């Protein structure tokens, strides 16, 4: 549904390709990439999706040639859908908006024909509203200034510029986006046994400095399951610095700083220390708080401005605006699937 609004396709959903080259070709021929029913991502594809989301290039040999290259320079929004926690690596999660969709009660499920008819009835109004939001954002964008920019800085600027058109209070994007990124970071930390162990290890101390080998030996004392040591999820001493470097931004949100010290006679040393957490502020007027942007039943609140853009339907539909509503009168498009995680 999201893709059909701006990038209709005869194949709206597809399986995730196995190679970065195939992903680049798919992105080169689409404006929105939507991958369905995923159970996880390989490290290679996770890194490739990071490049696709923030912009990156790929050069590969042209087929049927020896000395010619095909160059792809791409930046696209990506939708990943699946029941499991799809993203685990912190660099991908830091570029993502994670949405946990509520399960649909059996009594409220709809057949395909009814569902798509209701969506098509609303589609033109939704697209028209989005065009109005973009027009307003283009006018406001030169006046927007963020004090501290997140990793997805252009996204934050764009949506901040669109806040008035969306009917949001000033700084609403900061609250929602910061809270969502914090939840995504927590998800990544919880799924990484090394990150979990480092947090347990640092609960009893304010600093630690030693070689990778001795650090790993101490961390292993905090493992609750000995099987983890023999799994690929647990690093060797040679890979410990690399793994800590990757999860360092997430550990920093838990007030744990990872520092690589210069080589000494004992070799390279690892330093972990607790630091004081500083308040984050993205706009001049809005202080970031720990905000839950969802109401009690897990669905995002819908702006009254959107409803006002759809009031034309009240005069063209006997049931008015409620023909696309759920039981409580709020706008909601739902699929016929069970609860799934949607990562945009």
Biggest sheet character: 4 strands, mixed
- Identify the overall geometry: globular
| Strands in their spatial order, largest beta sheet | 1-4-9-5
Roughly how many Å is the radius of gyration?
23 Å
* Percentage of residues assigned to helices: 25-40%
Give the topology string: H per helix, E per strand.
Answer: HHEHEEEHEHHHHHEHHEEHE
Explain the overall architecture.
This protein is an alpha+beta fold and 344 residues long. It is built from twelve helices and nine strands. It has helices at residues 2-6, 20-28, 43-54, 90-93, 112-140, 153-161, 163-166, 172-190, 193-202, 212-220, 237-253, 304-309; strands spanning 33-35, 56-61, 69-74, 78-82, 98-100, 207-210, 256-260, 270-274, 341-343. The strands form three sheets. Strands 1-4-9-5 form a four-stranded mixed β-sheet. Strands 6-8-7 form a three-stranded antiparallel β-sheet. Strands 2-3 form a two-stranded antiparallel ribbon. Strand 2 (56-61) and strand 3 form a beta hairpin. The protein is globular and about 70 Å long.
